[in-house]
């Protein structure tokens, strides 16, 4: 029987495309499949450059570390990224009290680090130096996302799902859950900035014990020290400063602005950005900061934008959930006078005030469909305020948005008391 590698190229391509672009299983770890195909032989590696990746799924901090492997692949050959048409992001963050989720630190070779330093200079106008520092740390694989999105030049759809900005689940609740700095250190292992740590070179294959993630003991750290130490000593090297107070990802702080977006986002027509509601930070916003909606709205070819669990308000979990307010108008000021091309806007589980809806509406001008689900739990709004929001959006989209295409809290605008029919 002839081996499968002897099949004609057109048949192999059909098999590859049916496997990789399986519409019944769009959530598979696609980059692992691609890597396996490329490793079979030279013929298969060459063929892997010829088919479009309609559904490409990546796992943030997955224990198989496939996203790190993809990052290493792109350091030497970026052509794979140009094949991706739809990118789906899945979240597999470490949880402090579940050892099975404790993904090992990724170890770059000397040659890898030289390539990273090359791209640090080459992409300096798109990606911050701090992002490359986080990549080198090998802990937060989400830091690779801006790098990947520099090369996805044919990307049409990006689904971030319910993102988890926190590096380690439940770390912010350390006091109540008994998760001290020693526990967090065991999760992450020692990093390149800590004394005694050396990068692992190609010849060292001992991945299990090098970082001491299981049996490392630190006499300098008291296990009773809690959240502040975890934040200061561990998380600042892996997460953007905006993560704690705003729920932002490296993606958000590097996305760019009109005229200078990440190259791989310039053809995107559909984008979804949710947020894990259990991931919010106590004593801060009750969701991810809505100020990042503005740069998303102005992606040059974006037509559909879905946002979930965005916030400008927050407070203590036991006190006033509306005690903090970070209004949108000041952060939206650089975009004043611009009009988004987005046609469909869906704002789900929003934790905003009226002036914030005003600020978002002012940036629109081409909407044909508007869906809003305002969070009554965080900031209840009376019926007249819902009508006010509908009137405001319609005023900025007079030529394109009808009352039948505005729905707020499952209430169509044409049936709202106080709606403006002009």
From TrEMBL:
<dbReference type="Pfam" id="PF12937">
    <property type="entry name" value="F-box-like"/>
</dbReference>
<protein>
    <recommendedName>
        <fullName>F-box domain-containing protein</fullName>
    </recommendedName>
</protein>
<feature type="region of interest" description="Disordered">
    <location>
        <begin position="203"/>
        <end position="222"/>
    </location>
</feature>
<dbReference type="InterPro" id="IPR001810">
    <property type="entry name" value="F-box_dom"/>
</dbReference>
<feature type="domain" description="F-box">
    <location>
        <begin position="4"/>
        <end position="50"/>
    </location>
</feature>
